[in-house]
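Entry for the shared binder. Reason: the reviewer on the internal report wants the predicted structure included alongside the sequence.
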Amino acid sequence: MPALVLDVTLGLVICAVALGAVLARELLASIVFFIVYGAMLSIAWVRLGAIDAALAEAAIGAGLTGVLLIGAAARLKAPHPDPPPQGGRGQNGAASLPSPQSWAGEGGGAGAGGRRLAADSPILHRALIVPAAACVGLAAFLMFVLHGQFHQTAGLAPLVEGNIAASGVTNPVTAVLMNFRGYDTLLETVVLVIALVAVWSVTPDRFWGGAPGVRQHARPDGVLAHFGRLLPAVGILVGLHLLWAGSHAPGGAFQAGTVFAAVWLLVAMAGLADAPAVSDRRLRIAIAGGPLVFLLLAGAGAVAGTFLGFPAQWAYYMIVTVEAALTASIAATLAMLVLGPPRRAP
């Protein structure tokens, strides 16, 4: 009974926090709700026995994504004043276009026929009822379908357990991600690299090839500087443990890479090391190395009979090699994503 009460309470809290993230009017409040939402989901995954998913959610879903959202919010420009009336001209004589603030927000927005809708307009609220009802209906339908599935099948667990001996590892999550469904993992790493390229692509021409962010300066005797000296050693040990344990226990490249990225960012924030330039060859090799090593060993598996499938006698060593390369790639990619595009000339 206590466990049921805990699970029901946790589910209600998750739903409430999710609504807070969607309905909060302040951007910072939405981000805070989103971070709490990720933390609550991590606890839910622990309750379901999915420790790997809980680690990934806490590190990436709540931690890294929250940092990215806070950084994006900090870079948002202050609202521009409303433009002159239609047909007006700006200070330079050019015709002015309506700004986003004239469409919605505190100042209202231009609707059909010049009508302005405020953010708290009853018309706008009624317009949100249909998509909200559709989302609730879809969620109820999915819950009904999944509830029926739980009673009809055991899922893929028996299939994974029956073939895990040939995967080279004893952690079923790693076996699925690195051997049975390697396509998914490879595509995820490629998507990360593409996301970083997209971030770098918005760099102004004068800064291209330079370093992202600003040079950090922290007080040598301050708390941040002390944390920057003490915590990296612990973080490196934790990251190495997660990487090594991934073959037989919860852990793996994504969790270890996130920890290493956090260590890197902490050192940079403490002013103990500067961010590398995006033209640094070592950085580019680290970022591209993970997917490339994965593809090379996948090609070797194809020679043995299955692309992205590792021969049983070599599977363990090949998976550990791929995980190590992916850890370095994920750590470098996530850290550079947080730092953003280059803002300093080379």
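Summary line for the report: The longest strand covers residues 342-344.
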